[in-house]
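Feature request disguised as a bug: please show the residue count (345) next to GDP-mannose 4,6-dehydratase in the output. Example input:
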Amino acid sequence: MAKSALITGVTGQDGSYLAEHLLSLGYRVWGLTRGQANPRKDRVSRLIPDLRFVDGDLMDQGSLVSALNAVQPDEVYNLGAISFVPMSWQQPELVTEVNGTGVLRMLEAIRIVSGLSKPSASGVVAGQIRFYQASSSEMFGMVTRTPQNETTSFHPRSPYGVVKTYGHYMTRNYRESYGMYAVSGILFNHESPRRGPEFVTRKISLAAARIKLGLQERLRLGNLDAVRDWGFAGDYVRAMHLMLQQGRPEDYVVGTGQMHSVRDAARIAFDGVGLNWEDYVVVDPGLVRPAEVETLCADSSSARKHLDWEPTVDFTELMRMMVESDLRQTRLLREHGAELSGARW
Ligand code: NDP
Ligand code: GDR
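Example output, currently without the count:
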């Protein structure tokens, strides 16, 4: 019998790659979608015709219980979140509700439908449903040690990071309290042509393409010295799946171990279209964050050893892939305009 999976956040970057990956492995896959006419649901259903949908919202406990009862999944991947860090300073309470209490609601929903009413003896894996939580390198925040691994302490620097830390510990607590197979992947930044245009790599790749095609003049960026460990989203969803296939539930750090700056990203992207980034990038102090995370870099040796996981795309290839995709899509949009609106990522 094929395994079944429920993915929250299926309309986002990671959700779409994970759905494709699980379908390729023979899973039956349901995506939780919210709202009465979510245009991102249409987009992902066109891209992945075999994906099924179930209604629900991380803000609504009852809807999660109903979704689990309808789907009866073997595995739940909780990727749904408000994922843009600056929004967490603007709407900290909403981010707490979705990204933090939302994790608790899903854990409770799983506990309820699995009939786990009492704490179990520690170490015993109870219930059928395996749970993955999308934790983040933003939990490390102000780092005192580079690279970071599963034993590095957390010092989050944004409300987003603080709330992800809550979800991380809540997941661990349900594992320890109820014996649930519940794990967190502490994932470092991962990007792709499907990345939202508000994130810096996609903002840069889209701008390089638009400037090349004469549709934009300047690119305004914040902190050019910020350094991240950027990988390819398609690689990272493989790690999520592997984390739910182990004999013992454990958390893992996932990243490439390579650091690059925002300046590097701009240079590679503009090089890719034959332009000099310094002629087009303008630093906008309004885009600098109230508290910055300067140097994040993953030590994924545990994932490499226990999950046999390796990244396959390096940073230069990643930026080039994104620029090429944006050039292609921008040309198509320019030529076919309205017919294609809503089709692009
Ligand atoms: P995206 O922003 O692309 O997708 C976020 C998803 O969350 C969307 O599908 C959105 O759906 C959904 N969502 C938002 N609010 C709710 C809600 N109330 N109930 C249910 N779903 C909701 O994020 P990514 O795919 O990049 O990231 C996936 C997860 O991984 C997130 O939790 C993110 O915080 C985390 N993460 C991401 C990293 C990265 O580099 N990409 C690194 C580390 C962690 P809708 O269409 O309805 O808005
Ligand atoms: P991040 O990603 O906050 O790390 O969160 P983002 O791409 O937004 O920022 C990366 C770094 O680039 C700097 N930066 C800019 N960022 C944006 N968005 N726009 C700009 O113009 C700009 N200029 C400089 C930022 O200051 C920052 O240092 C992502 C999300 O996917 C989270 O959900 C996830 O948890 C973490 O990665 C790991």
